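Open question from group meeting: does this chain pack into something compact, or does most of it stay loose? Before anyone orders reagents, we agreed to write out a predicted structure and look at it together. Recording both the input and the output here so the notebook holds the full record.
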Amino acid sequence: MRISFTLLFTCVAWLSFGQNKILFDASKAQAAGNADWVIDADLHNIFFSSGPAIPNTGGTESNAQRFPTPAQNTVTAATTEDYWQGGISFWALDCVKKGYAVETLPYNGLITYGNSSNAQDLSNYKAFIVDEPNILFTAAQKTAIINYVANGGGLFMIADHDISDRNNDGEDSPFIWNDLMTTNTVQANPFGISFDAADFTQTSTTVLNSATDPILHGTAGNVTRVYWSGGTSMTLNSSLNPNVKGVIFKTGSSTAGTTNVLCAYTTYGQGKVAAIGDSSITDDGTGDTLDTLFDGYIADANGNHQRLLMNITNWLMAPNMSTDPFETQNAFTLLPNPAQDILSVYSDQATLAVNALLIYDLSGRLVGESKANTIQVNDLAKGTYLLQIIDQEGKVYPKKFLKN
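Structure tokens returned:
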């Protein structure tokens, strides 16, 4: 089926995306029950009564605000996880330390795409992370999400096990994700991913043997194992999306298969999608003190979950090689180009300063980073690379360079 866009963007529309901004969803009851899948909450006054959240009714669940506090521009490399209060605050702080800006879509936020009157419209973000939704997406929200991806956005779908209905509305995350993909008006199962109605706990070391895979071997480190603590799996369909790829599988499964998949990713249109079947791995063990939380992010698999989630985040945030415009910004100059050992970045504008440099190969894998205006490239293979220059205000300037 041909992709049906309600909005048609040219490749330069990528510049309107928040190139270094990530939106974490909290509008789908992510704080219901024993979950606390928010990056920070100053209030705990949400109440769930068989459905959506209701504030100020004596509830005690996290009511996440748009911007975490203290402000993220005060985060340093030494900032500890308890700087923010949320069950996935460790992950969010890791994102900020990488140079990304993070926000939360609050419980009453709107999921839209192309709506200029919505300050948190998806077009303002490079990636949209939805950790275990517990409320069905509306028809308009499904259209918005799929068109967002088709036009260059990055979507991270995180599910949990079957019958994990946190807010007692009769729907749980595997069904909610499948409903998004199968009953939308854009394209039936555009991502080639279906979450299984399963519930299992196991350690798996069945990882795809691919030394260059950006999810398994990104700059966050090598992923060699995962621990699913009450999670589900996925079934992939390459006839619906030929780019879909499984990289981690249940113990005893074939890494060449399309079933029993624990982690998968793909592209759709000009955008990217990643998916995992367990929300436990995002949990850092802190957050709402009335919930029973566990450290799945670091402790459950000896840091493998942190590496997996950050590799996925970096891949989603990487430039979309086929469409992102390069050499459109003249504010910075690269010297030398081609480069051999060290690449330096200069600007003739006194008001511009380099805050971070990120290098990606043509597969979208992050292969180098620096917090200065110079970066070592001597370990890179010969070829073409993509450089993102992030200034002191978080604006991103994309450039190509050659490595000799």
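Observations to bring back to the group:
The radius of gyration is 20 Å.
Residues 304-317 form the longest helix (14 residues).
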